[in-house]
Amino acid sequence: MKRRKMLLGLMSALLVFAMVGCSSSKSEDTGSTNTGTTGTAATGKDLKGDITVITQKTDIVDTVFKDYAQKFKQEYPNINVKFQALSDYEGQIKVRMNSSDYGDVLLLPTSIPLADTPQFFEPLGNYDDMKKQYNGLEERTVDGKVYGIPTTINFNGLVYNKKVFADAGVTEVPKTPDQFLAALQKIKDKGAAVPLYTNYAAGWPLTQWEADLTTVAGNVDYVNITQANTDDNFVKGSPHYELYKLMYDVAQKGLIEKDPTTTDWETSKADLANGKIGTMVLGSWAIGQIQGLSKTPEDIGFMPFPTNAEKVIMPLADDYTIGISSKSSNKEAARAWIDWFINKSTYPTTEGGGMSPAVGAELPATLKQFEGTDVEFKFQTPAKAGQEGLVDKIDKDSEIGLWQPDFKKRIIEAAIGNKKESYDDIMKDLNDKWKASRASVASE
Amino acid sequence: MVFKNMSYKNQRKLIIIAFSLIPVVLLFTFAYLPVINMFKYSFTNWNGYSDHYKWVGFKNYKTIFTDPKYFTVFKVSLYYFVATFVQMGLALYFATILSFKVRAKNFFKGVLFFPSLLNGVAIGFIFLFFFKPDGTLDTILNFLGLSSLSQGWLLNPNIINVSLAGASIWRYMGFNFIIFLGAISSVGKDVYEASDIDGANKWHQFRHIIIPSIKRIVQLNLILGISGAISAFDIPYIMTGGSNGSNTFVIQTVDVAFKFSKLGLASAMAVVLLFIVVIVTILQNLLSKKED
């Protein structure tokens, strides 16, 4: 009896210790808010320090990034750069950000809400000054201060195999959803390739469709402004309805892979490269990877998402943005790396596979074909003041998951007859959720 | 010096405390503390990384119990529940057979236990290839001339959970098997010999000697199996990510926490799951006590 009491006492003492330890570590973090902007006035030789750069590029961290470090060292001989690559970047970095050890330079996780950015990152400069130098800063600008510069700028649409389309007798690039469906049908009839590969099993490739919302809407205001202020985000005739109707139609007409539940992303890239797949909905970042797997890279083309809108807008969007940890002790050195990485490394155009964020940079080769056509390249208009991150908030609260594969999977399941609900049922359900959450977010 | 002067009783106490300190600290920091925090978070709207969060009282629990979508997924657990019995039946069958004199006994033991040694992710991928159209299963069926039976094993929403539960039986059967085997081998040889003399056949031995002597172990395996069925996770998560009607409660919890950044709500779901498992275990204990 006595012994048991002692043990109990010991355990409760431990418990108290543990609780105290836990709560004190939490409150410390709030102290360090913005301590002004870090300048880049100092020249290369003056800057020194060790910095850790965290990246998601596990495949090239020991090869290409090593070269970057060497070239960087020639300009900044006193800065030592170390790399850490995380395979599940988004998941792992979020956990590390609860501590103060998350490197000096890192990519801003997309799932961190805009309002929480200053808590973790160092401001890089004023938006008004920096926008003369870089595009795509809006995504991580809070109260006029920039926290992240895009590592590269992606454009979204469809990667397709020109030869597959030509062999099936499709001579012109389809522009409207109807033309697109007709073209896929021809490929199916030819029988040599899967017309459109959904990558249902991997899940995340389905989220690439959402990036084409601007093209379907035909309006750069839609995503951040119109959408945030409408209760009818998924009703018939709205861009979301039209966008995913195409997904539904393609699946329902059997223009996709035979068994979507057992697809494999790595194989799909090779199959598209070798003409076993007609097209996939992807971003520009994928073009290089797929061309690299093909013996005839010139066959791999890129087209805007089919739309009924008057103007064809190919939306430009930031890839991961890069920023400096607010807990870094070598902020100036970190800043030097970022400036060098964006402007002087080959990353934005080659490894990243998109456009350089620097203002006035040249268009990449895949986009040159659209120069002089009616295809426009545009950024989405940022949200109105006071509505930053609102769409994301409504999305999370409603558990719709605009950038998650869940409801896209539901659409495909319904289209191939695995679920009893119709396309309109799904859209109605999503719209109800959207409406309810928009109201509840507004009342908070 | 001080230790020497203590009475034997006190020395004993000190040693016990000294030895249990490290395990208790570890248990606390890695088991109880997270659970306590989980209870705490379940009353907040924390998103998983922010410095600040609000206390929302029982709002998360209200959401779980009022929105049908959080509970309908338990239907899927029924498949795994049924599979638990199949799994235990098979495990008991093999354990009994291999406890008698069989040729290449150790080889078969190894074969049956092998899946338990494999990593869950590897098993997920093995079965993904197994169930693929024209994959291993279809090839075997073709070879046997049963190609008419081949299906979209993961494509057909009526079959997907059976396929996944099948994979899960394969994965966990070995573990049950080894426990049964251990229990059966603890039954004394003389009992069998006595029954042999009395003219009992193998079935009689199984029914009247083996079953009664390993009853406790059967119950233990059943509890493990049922709580495993309620919290089925790894096989469906790796193979389908919970799509096409294979979503389970735990997958849903993970999604809520990490896809939608509602750590508070997800904690509440985990607490609910914890209570369900505890209640089921208590119920089962009560029922089996009554039998005794």
From TrEMBL, chain A:
Stretch forming the signal peptide: 1-27
Organism expressing this protein natively: Paenibacillus zeisoli
PROSITE patterns with a match to the protein in the record: PROKAR_LIPOPROTEIN (PS51257)
Pfam families: SBP_bac_1 (PF01547)
SUPFAM superfamilies: Periplasmic binding protein-like II (SSF53850)
Protein origin, superkingdom: Bacteria
UniProt keywords, alphabetically: Cell membrane, Lipoprotein, Membrane, Palmitate, Signal
Annotated protein name in UniProt: Extracellular solute-binding protein
